[in-house]
Design brief:
- The complex is a heterodimer of chains A (360) and B (482).
- Chain A has 360 residues and is mainly α.
- Chain A has helices at 2-31, 40-50, 54-71, 73-82, 84-106, 110-139, 159-186, 190-221, 223-229, 234-253, 256-278, 289-292, 296-325, 337-343, 345-351, and strands spanning 281-283, 287-288.
- In chain A, a hairpin with a 3-residue loop joins strand 1 (281-283) and strand 2 (287-288).
- Chain A is globular, with a radius of gyration of 22 Å.
- Chain B is mainly alpha-helical and 482 residues long.
- Helix content of chain B is 68%, strand content 5%.
- Chain B contains 15 helices and eight strands.
- Chain B has helices at residues 2-13, 15-53, 57-91, 93-103, 105-126, 133-162, 180-184, 189-217, 223-257, 259-266, 298-303, 327-361, 368-394, 407-410, 417-448, and strands at residues 167-169, 175-178, 277-279, 282-283, 289-290, 293-295, 399-401, 405-406.
- The chains are: A mainly alpha (360), B mainly alpha (482).
- The interface between A and B is large, with 88 and 93 residues.
Chain lengths: 360, 482
């Protein structure tokens, strides 16, 4: 039964990587989009693309944490005891980022939008880095078990962690750019689509380079994972590489929809390959999933909850995405004259009903 | 000098006070957003219903604007809630390592409700223009339900800490089997969940109503403001008497199941019958009660009305020294208890005033005194809720899991907690100020745009233009900056 729950955990991690990962990546592109004028176009696409869905995407993280601490409590305790610094960075970053994004939407003056945009965009890079670094710390066996804390510094500042962090940032940036090409086309903005297409190709190449370096680092620094990746997980690894290269080729030729599918598949197979590579360990090579697992009653409850989620949350989640993709969830939700009034006072005067003058 | 230095370093190194402070601080911030998340969705739907059913454009505008505020508070609640799930592990790794298998179960279900809530909040907020009116209305209903069940799940986990159940331990004290039903439906859960849920409607209602009461005091008494106030205040006024009954039941439950907490609440040093209800006052060394106004026999009588004054209440001295809360903790619990009860009573009187106004005069009480009281009711309700939460949590000391695990055994060994505490206080202060500023700016913008704008029909496909624009709000305050 612990294997079943571990698979649930894997699915949740993959879902978080491909849904929320793209939101983080959008923050990366938001960050380097340039000044208010130059970046307006791409920021518009980003805002429109992740506005309705980022909160639902974020819930996958909560779900991962809950499944982890409920089903494998010793693993959660060990990770938090050792990797508390990057975890704290991630937690604070998530607060800043979510609040920054939500507030930016309702802020009107460009100055406030810039400040809040920074609060959204900078943590969007920091958080995936911290999470990748944590994954690297776990994968390289730097998280001890049995109520002992590992090295608070070297557990996340080490070759595997640094590569993990950089790879995570590059991968989410790539994923986001690929999504945004498609979104920009959907919004009828070929210039923005071309803008993101070039960046997607660039980010894709960066991912390839970082991944190649990571393999060398893993060989030296995380031998168990390396061996697993090139034995059990080899088919997944090959699938991931093929999909990634295929997505890049499609992108170069300008086929956004196919590239999107292949990019998602690539990220999903690489994440799965990592999990398979370190199986049966949650914390290589000291804590296996079955040793860390909670009693059967708890695991059953988790699986029941997952089953309930599959029949209630999944249709709603799909519904949200369908509505979003059909353009039924426009960016501003409902127009309010109050918003427009500050945007451009002259236009607001034109649409104001008669007798509005005495109010302002 | 060196002694001071040593004291400071010792304090900085000891993680227990810092971990407690950080957990308390982040929870007390998050808990303010909970009532808004739970009750604002209901109030918005009431407005939305009126808008469609009675073709009331003011109600429609109100529902739309409330949904925009809701989006902001929901986002802030989501991120502060995430911090909490990190902190369970960051601050209390030994607690999670040992009890995660049981404590975590309610959260597995909470995850579902949170998912549902996030998805439908997005659909509701973003779907105003593109969904049909009734379809759109129904996408709001899952938000209300998910809010209710989500709150119940989280409270079930907290209740489990007060009344741990549904597991067996081996000789080493490790959890070896778990009965999820037993964990979720622990003895404390039904009452605690009811208390928090009603509190959510009470606090959310008073909080929203107080904003509109303040606006009405400044002369904005148009239909739009009166409607907003009425919806919010009615929700709160219905919740208040219910809360009184639930709270009274809980006090008796605590008397029966958590005698140390009860002794702290009632400030009872020695076991006896005919125990007075002490208003205010405090305990000093050796549990001597100082000051306060004792009402003879009332605590005994309330603990078990069937035996009345003869009801025996266990005193603090009756418990092993190890299991006693500290003097400071007892004083905090008792003071917060008085604050909660006192404010709850005041809010009840205010709700009564409002109710009598409706029944007798069939209209909203609109005199200045009532509006002043209604303005104060929002912040006071928040204080009452925070006080009640402190009673629950501090009253459980020294236990993190009642009679099973002490706080000191649960805490992290990491000595840097004070750094994360300071970081989080700074971040949350900025977050709080920004949230209030953003909400305030939104309301100012809304106000400047006028109570109602009829040129834009909210639902698509656009129906024929409305024949007559509704009456303009009667009074308006000049906005200083253009």
């Amino acid at each position: 039964m612990s294997t079943a729950v571990a698979i649930v955990l894997l699915i949740a991690v993959v879902a978080y990587a491909i849904f929320a990962g793209a939101d983080f990546g959008a923050g990366f592109w938001d960050l380097i989009a340039g000044g208010p004028d130059r970046g307006a176009r791409s920021r518009g696409v980003i805002e429109h693309s992740i506005g309705p869905v980022w909160e639902a995407n974020h819930v996958w993280l909560i779900f991962i944490l809950v499944v982890l601490w409920t089903s494998f409590p010793p693993a959660y305790a060990s990770i938090t005891l050792t990797l508390y610094v990057p975890m704290m960075i991630a937690a604070l970053g998530i607060v800043l980022r979510g609040a920054g994004f939500a507030f930016r939407k309702v802020a009107v003056t460009p100055r406030n939008q810039r400040i809040l945009g920074g609060a959204f965009a900078i943590p969007s890079v920091l958080v995936p880095y911290a999470m990748g670094a944590m994954a690297g710390g776990v994968a390289s066996g730097r998280v001890p078990t049995g109520g002992r804390a590992g090295d608070p510094v070297h557990s996340w500042i080490n070759p595997t962690s640094i590569m993990g962090g950089v790879l995570a940032v590059a991968a989410v940036a790539y994923l986001a750019a690929v999504y945004l090409v498609w979104d920009a086309r959907r919004l009828g903005d070929p210039a923005a689509a071309e803008y993101f297409r070039r960046r997607a190709v660039g980010a894709g190449c960066a991912v390839v380079v970082v991944a190649a370096v990571s393999v060398v680092v893993l060989h030296a620094d995380a031998r168990y994972l390396f061996d697993g990746l090139f034995s059990r997980a080899l088919p997944l690894l090959i699938l991931g590489v093929l999909c990634g290269v295929g997505a890049l080729l499609l992108l170069v030729r300008g086929a956004a929809a196919g590239a999107r599918l292949l990019a998602v598949l690539a990220v999903a197979s690489i994440v799965t390959a990592w999990m398979v590579g370190q199986w049966p360990y949650l914390l290589p090579t000291s804590l296996t999933a079955s040793a860390a697992a909670s009693p059967n009653g708890t695991l059953t409850a988790v699986l029941v909850a997952v089953g309930l989620a599959a029949v209630t949350v999944l249709p709603a989640f799909i519904g949200l995405y369908v509505l979003d993709q059909l353009g039924k969830l426009p960016d501003e939700g409902v127009d309010d004259v109050a918003d427009r009034q500050l945007d451009s006072p002259r236009q607001a005067d034109a649409v104001e009903p008669a007798g509005a003058d005495d109010r302002t | 000098m060196s002694q001071t230095y040593q004291l400071i370093t010792a304090l900085a190194v000891d993680p227990v006070p810092w971990a407690r402070a950080q957990m308390a601080f982040t929870l007390m911030c998050h808990i303010i957003l909970v009532p808004l998340g739970v009750s604002w969705a209901l109030m918005t739907l009431v407005a939305n219903y009126r808008a469609i059913r009675h073709d009331n454009p003011h109600a429609l505008l109100l529902a739309q604007r409330w949904s925009k505020y809701m989006a902001v508070t929901f986002a802030v609640g989501a991120v502060t809630g995430t911090v909490l799930s990190f902190e369970f592990g960051l601050l209390w790794p030994r607690f999670m390592g040992r009890w995660g298998a049981a404590f975590g179960v309610p959260f597995a279900f909470e995850g579902i409700f949170f998912f549902v809530e996030a998805i439908f909040v997005a659909i509701y907020i973003f779907g105003w223009r593109r969904l049909k009116p009734w379809t759109h209305f129904w996408t709001g209903v899952p938000i209300v339900l998910a809010g209710i069940f989500g709150t119940m799940s989280v409270v079930a986990a907290n209740a489990w800490m007060n009344a741990p159940a549904g597991f067996t331990l081996n000789a080493q004290g490790d959890v070896v089997s778990v009965n999820p039903i037993g964990v979720i439906f622990n003895k404390s859960m039904p009452l605690q969940a009811a208390h928090m849920l009603v509190a959510a409607y009470l606090v959310g209602g008073f909080l929203v109503a107080s904003v509109y009461a303040a606006a009405m005091l400044r002369g904005r008494r148009d239909h739009y403001h009166r409607l907003a106030f009425t919806i919010a205040f009615t929700v709160a006024a219905i919740a208040t008497p219910v809360q009184l009954a639930v709270g009274d039941t809980i006090a008796r439950w605590v008397y029966q199941n958590q005698p140390t907490k009860f002794a702290a609440i009632e400030l009872v040093p020695t076991t006896s019958s005919d125990v007075p209800e002490t208003l205010l006052g405090r305990v000093g060394p050796n549990w001597t009660v100082k000051g306060g106004l004792p009402i003879p026999g009332l605590a005994s009588w309330l603990s078990d009305p069937s035996t009345g004054k003869a009801t025996v209440v266990q005193g603090l001295k009756a418990f092993p020294v190890d299991n006693q809360p500290t003097i400071a903790e007892v004083n905090i619990v008792h003071l917060m208890w008085d604050v909660m009860i006192g404010l709850g009573t005041l809010l009840f009187l205010l709700a009564l005033w409002y109710g009598i106004g409706w029944v007798v005069r069939r209209r909203l009480p609109s005199n200045r005194l009532f509006l002043l009281a209604a303005t104060a009711a929002g912040p006071l309700a928040v204080i009452a809720m925070e006080a009640g939460w402190i009673v629950t949590e501090v009253g459980r000391q020294p236990w993190i899991v009642y009679n099973q695990m002490r706080v000191s055994a649960a805490v992290t060994g990491n000595h840097g907690v004070w750094i994360s505490f300071i970081a989080i206080v700074i971040l949350y202060a900025a977050l709080g100020v920004t949230t209030i500023l953003v909400l305030h700016r939104m309301s100012r913008r809304f106000r400047r745009a006028g109570g109602f704008v009829e040129h834009d029909t909210p639902y698509a496909p656009r129906p024929a233009p409305q024949s007559t624009p509704p009456a303009e709000p009667e009074q308006r305050v000049k906005v200083l900056d253009p």
